[in-house]
Amino acid sequence: MARELTTPGVPTALPAVGLTVGQVAQRSGVAISTLHFYERQGLIASTRTTGNQRRYRRDVVRRVAFIRVSQRVGLPLADIRDALARLPAGRTPTKRDWTRLSAIWHCDLDARIEQLVRLRDSLNDCIGCGCLSLKSCRLANPDDALSAQGPGPRRLLVDGIRPLPDDDAEG
Hints:
mainly alpha; 4% strand; three-stranded antiparallel sheet
């Protein structure tokens, strides 16, 4: 009988059969240590065989792909974990489940896309950061007038995207 691994928000009654950690790593393109990290973070779950070897359900491969793509577009692990917690416990998620999950981030992803397009198209020009070091800044942002709208690169910021925390901020 398999020893069950308990991970908050993830079902504990998983069958002891499934993919090995090496198989999941090979198929998903991530290191075994990354899978262990995801498991510690409660993003994926495994069961243990009587020999204490991890076994994963096949749907973990899709979860790992979802995690990787979400990270690639800049979503924090906490948001990814919260989204994955919305998937049904104890069964493989259906297309409908994944569609419902992706709808959560639709607006956020649209805002991120807009932010990237602005960055791509405007990085050479005045971005409204207040440096006034480019010749175009004197015309586009005379006397740093954009500072009245708030801090940061005012021409690049898009509503709906959470700012990154300050490097020296606590917590």
